[in-house]
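Journal club side-thread
Mid-discussion, someone asked how the predicted structure for our own chain would compare to the paper's figures. Pasting it here so we can look after the session.
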Amino acid sequence: MIDRQRIETLAKQVVLPQKHLINGKHVGATDGGTLDVINPGNGQKLTTIADGTAADVNAAVVAAKSAFERGVWSRMPPAQRKKILLSFSDLVMAHQYELAVLGVRDNGTEIAMALKAEPASAASTIRFYAEAIDKVSGEVAPSAEGSLGLVLRQPVGVVGVIVPWNFPLMIAAWKIAPALAVGNSIVLKPAESASLSLIRLAELALEAGLPEGVLNVVTGQGSVTGEAMGLHPDIDVVAFTGSGVVGRKLLEYSAASNLKHIYLELGGKSPHIVFADTENLDRAAKAAANGIFRNSGQVCIAGSRLLVEEGVREELVEKIKTHAENYKVGDPLDVDTDIGAINSEQQLQKNLSFVRTALDEGANRVTGGARINEDSGGYYMAPTIFDNVAEDSRIAQEEVFGPMLSVMSFSDETQAVQLANSTNYGLAAGVWTSNLSRAHRMIQKVQSGVVHVNCYGGADITMPMGGLKQSGNGYDKSLHALDKYTALKSAWISLEN
């Protein structure tokens, strides 16, 4: 049961100006610069954050490297790191309402989803890696008599983490929890429009016992602080979730500096494929609607392309339309709201420009496609469905990152696969069918990092998440994520006298 009164109380609290958290201390930008934080629910200024500089990034990296080299965390016994991370997880849950409300006022996600997808998810992720770390070990090689081969796992050093605004706590936890568990130090750069909950998260880490300098937060514009992180010679790994344009820049920065490893999750244009033999079309329709409209479509794995077999196309589209028109779109802090706000005025206008493009390209608007609730001052958009979308159109090929569903039909399995694989992305997919053999064929043939069968979303922390093609490289979640933040060292020992 959600505590409505607690949400209302927290929503009224004044949010003070926020600063960087470097070496355990709150400090402003070196030049005194600040950025306004706008509440997307009402369009009003909420507070300010420090507008970071390259000098601020350097200070954070110096603190992180010093902590790493002193060994206050990196050489702490795994069992002790585990204890602190478990305490960190408990504190996140103890402050779940504070974190969720703070985040919603910053990025516009509906509160019911935010409570589950943000602090609850972050806490469980931190706990997963805390429990794992004293159970992950190196190897003893099967070497010949007279020799001993050891394969050691060691932390890489300083990890730069850059996360987006849609689910800042959840996505940050996917990166900082495994990186911390194996002993690294971190410089975390939140999105300009979703920094508040991550500053608070880092404060809770300190309260849990994380040594100063191990987790640092630098806020500000990506074009400044993100570039400084990409170019910094003492950052050993950058883990990034965001746009392909920025991902490419980070690769360039790596090449221009110390060849740091860059791990990228760059979004998707995920196909949601429904065959005519689907047993429960109502369930598929609800999953398809939730898969694109919740959080206003601002979800990396959003099922933005509905590929439906011709025999059930009209029926399925009508069912999804009903869901779309029955959602309550409004105040993100209202627990009865189904869909909250678009993150910013800029993102809303980008979404609306895609609507105009879709109409120009000849798509049929089934519902939505307009700004709504404008008198609130916030950034809201009606759930939007376009049918008869051409395979090569922009809304079929480009990531909108808004509540917009593109519908295309297919006649057989071969065409379904061809349409599913017809974009540059390969992050996620969904397949609905009652044919087990077909389900396995689709899993093999659809080019995406995760394929959902008779569901969409919901894969837990035990499952890796990563993309194929231009959706990125490397994996968040699961034990596989540890590979990004550890380096293997081989020790070859002669046992001869």
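Post-session note: The chain has 15 helices and 22 strands.
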